[in-house]
Amino acid sequence: MGIPARLVMYIMMFSNIYICAQKVEVYVSDAGNFTSPPWKILKFDENGENPETFINQNLAWPQDILFLEDQGICLISNFSSGRITKYDIASGNYLGNFAVGLNAPTRMKIGPDSLLYVLQWSGSGKVKRYKLTGEFVDDFTTAGVPQSIGIDWDNKRNMYVSSYQLDYVKKYDENGGDLGVFINSNLVGPTDIWFDKSGDLLVSDYDGTAVKRFDSQGNYKGNFLSGLSNSEGVGFLPNGNILIGNGATGSVKMFSDEGVYLSDFIPKNSGGLIRPNAVYIRSIGVVSVKDEKENPNNPTEFILEQNFPNPFNPTTTINYTIPKINFSTSGPERYAQVSLTIYDALGKETLTAFNTTKAPGNYTYIFDGSSLTSGVYFYTLISGIFSKTKKMLIVK
Questions:
Q1: What CATH code would you report for 299-394?
Q2: Quick check: bond before 276 cis, omega within 30?
Q3: 185-204: per-residue pLDDT in tens?
Q4: Quick one: residue 125, left, alpha or beta (phi over 0 = left, psi -120 to 50 = alpha)?
């Protein structure tokens, strides 16, 4: 007697969950007492547990967190010192300055052009751009935003920036040209902003109790989620759940992708957390249970992870791993030639994301699908005889 097909499906599903899991680490910036310490960057596991202090040196009212995996560094924007400082990705040790001379930098985000965009709370309020090596590019925007603290792009590469002081969201074209105020109502101290898969803009209100939803024309559609107080910092787990810092209680709350409250992912004051103001989800690879037990720090296989979020619009994150390989018994580790190619649903090559050499390690690639239409696509990672393909969905 054979095993029923439905049972086989469940066995395979749960076997995959056991054998292969996407591991993440959650990093939270603690603003402490605002202008006075203690300030720190905390690290938690994928369950919001086992807190440890990752960084507590050379901070000055930290605002945002960004990992550059291929460089092995973590960037922190510092409000009080006007600096973006950099740290070793593994130890958290201070490595120096990435950028200096900013006017109270807040959010940092890699844009569609693969440059780093940095918001400024004071001064001109213009958005600055940097190469990922730290080289200053330009003041991207023609007009500034006072107390700017939230940034995102739509599927046409228009950029949006929120103003905490003026309770609005301003819109810019893809060249930084001022397109005027996009939202100027129903906001009370907006902080983080992001577009969801439907194309609506979600805005977190620090002085309100909700994340609010606006359509593609800036019209208010109501609350996306509620139950927040002093909300600042947002991160997206691979399963679609949303983490939001709740400053009033010193906790990080978790919501479903439909805005339903699930739990306090990081409970009140866990790890000494006082006032979360940034949340960063770092994927550290897909590992099997066997590999994790036998070889946790030295992967021996090429790995291509499922992109997240998925579906997405217009950007998504693709993580992959290049292992340490000895090409002879006495030979040194070598760089690997690696390419990532995008194909449409019919298997026609659409574009090459990159084709370059990489040292062994874990990497994050931000794929921008702004130039593509809605639909199913495939992305293939190739290095030598290794080839792996996964499916992704763009929804505009």
A1: 2.60.40.2550
A2: no
A3: 999 999 999 998 788 999 99
A4: left
